[in-house]
Design goal:
With 78 residues, the chain is α+β, with helices and mostly antiparallel strands. The chain has 2 helices and 4 strands, in the order E-E-E-E-H-H.
Length: 78
């Protein structure tokens, strides 16, 4: 599961690299992933997640415990 955001599910998408002469070759647009440690106060432990920048914003907005609870309900092992 490399290069996949655990919170938002973002994955690399295909596209084209376009040269000055307008020649198109294949490339990949990678998500902005960070490996980040969060402290889960309810369970009194640290959790490492591979999240995108948007995933970090989602955790800040909705709360870590709610996001982790939803991930566990989807079957993700955390």
């Amino acid at each position: 599961m490399a290069r996949v955001c655990q919170v938002t599910g973002k994955v690399p998408i295909p596209g084209h690299r376009v040269s000055h002469s307008n020649i198109k070759t294949n490339r990949r647009f990678l998500p902005n992933l960070q490996t980040k440690r969060f402290f889960l106060a309810e369970e009194d432990k640290w959790i490492s997640l591979k999240v995108s920048a948007e995933g970090i914003r989602t955790i800040n907005k909705r709360g870590l415990y709610l996001v982790i609870k939803e991930l566990r309900a989807q079957g993700e092992k955390i």
